[in-house]
Amino acid sequence: MGPTHPLWQAHHDDLNRLTERGRLRALAPRHGRDFASNDYLALSGSPRLRDAIGAALARGVPAGSGGSRLLRGNDPEHEALEAEAAAWAGSTSALFLSSGYAANVALLATLPQTGDLVIHDELIHASMHEGLRLTRATALSVPHNDAGAFADAASQWRRAGHTGRIWLAFETLYSMDGDRAPLADLVAIAERHDAIMLIDEAHATGVFGRWGRGLADGLDGRADTVVLRTCGKALGAEGALVCAPRVVRDFLVNRGRPFIFSTAPSPLMAAAVREAIRICTDEPERRARLSALSAQAERVLVPLGATATGTQILPLILGDDKRTMRVAGALQAAGFDVRGIRPPTVPPGTARLRISLTLNCGPGDLSALAAALEETLV
To answer: Cα–Cα distances in Å, from 366 out to 37, 150, 240, 316, 344?
Structure first.
């Protein structure tokens, strides 16, 4: 990078260090066949979502909310979405927030209290880590998907004489590894220790479960369960839904600073999410097609080094940051939008191609990607 003003020299030097390590990031436009997005069901451009937004505009729904939900920003579309989302999920209530990031920060910063313990998987999303930076509780990281470590941490904390609440924070489907949490074991641990589960369903919502309710399908409505379902991935829109007991919703409305002090999401997005939920219910064939595509991906990509996950996310770990970006660049030049993922998003030494399967591509596209990848990796 060229010279810069002395006021910004420290930042300039930091960017140079990123460049030297092969970790400098830059925004890149969409290009090529989609093996990078989280638009798993191809709903973001679907005619039904476009029509839902058009119909909302026609009936006078505004583009912007005009303020926070506690001021004048609370639109009937927000409340209609929350009622429909709670019914769809089987939850007591739902609360619509501007993003999954904001929702995770709100949950971790607001719900656990002084004297509590939050036990979390080491690979939880950055948004959960950000919430833990703000929490009053003690936070303890345990090895990824190690249910025994969750149980041991809870037992040891109790044996030390602590009497606060235990919280278990984890994702059901991890975005960079594509693997699933040991959900049944974690539920049993929560029951044994009278703990509360904070479950992030970001990458499972829409893809798994009855009517696309996710891998935590069937846990909603429990007193010990708070489920976050993002709306900007498989649901094709924007925002996030916290599905939880009514007291949790009311507490976030009164104490959750990311909710209280943020301008409310666009009412048009609420209308779009309502339609996306209906599509998940009406069109199960989308999930069936994605499942078939995932099975094909394991047949053609695992022999090339990708990890079999049984989900729509397959990592191909290359290790070296610069090599990862060279391979990603070669695939992009060949017309395939595959992105390289480097630390700190993933642990050091695990730079990878994150191959994301969506209905924006079909079986032929996947076969072509495998052929291009085989040629590139030689």
So the answer is: 15, 38, 30, 15, 28
- Asked which of 238, 256, 282 is the last residue of a domain, the reply is 282
Q: What is the pLDDT of residues 293-326, one digit of tens each?
A: 999 999 999 999 999 999 999 999 999 999 999 9
Residue 29: pLDDT band (50, 70, 90) is confident
Q: Are residues 236 and 132 in the same domain?
A: yes
Q: Write the single-letter amino acid at 34.
A: D
Here the CATH number for the domain that contains residue 120 is 3.40.640.10
Query: How many whole angstroms separate alpha carbon 294 and alpha carbon 253?
Result: 39
> Could you give the number of structural domains in the chain?
2
Q: How far is CA 236 from CA 15, 54, 206, 207, in A?
A: 33, 16, 10, 12
Tell me, yes or no, whether 91 lies in a domain.
Answer: yes
Measured CA to CA, the distance from residue 303 to residue 238 in angstroms comes to 36
For the record, the structure tokens of 249 come out as: 């919703």
How many CA atoms does the CB half-sphere of 23 hold within 13 Å?
18
Catalytic residue flag (residue 98):
no
Query: Is pLDDT at 331 greater than 70 in this prediction?
Result: yes
Alpha carbon distances (Å) from 275 to 55, 108, 209, 278, 314: 11, 29, 18, 5, 29
Confidence tier at 27 by pLDDT (50, 70, 90): confident
Pairing of strands 117-121, 166-171: parallel
Q: Is the pLDDT of residue 3 over 80?
A: no
Active-site residue flag, 38: yes
pLDDT in tens, 259-297: 999 999 999 999 999 999 999 999 999 999 999 999 999
- Residue 73 near residue 267 (C-beta atoms within 8 A): no
Domain co-membership, 133 together with 243: yes
- Burial of 140 (C-beta count, 10 Å sphere; 0-12/13-18/19+): middle
Q: Is 233 a catalytic residue?
A: yes
Has 74 been annotated as catalytic?
no
Taking the C-alpha atoms of residue 249 and residue 51, their distance in angstroms, rounded to an integer, is 30
Q: Which of 78, 120, 193, 203 is catalytic?
A: 203
- Catalytic choice (200, 220, 275, 365): 200
* 248 and 320 assigned to the same domain: no
Do residues 265 and 349 share a domain?
Answer: no
Could you confirm whether 282 is annotated as catalytic? no
Same domain, yes or no: 340 and 255? no
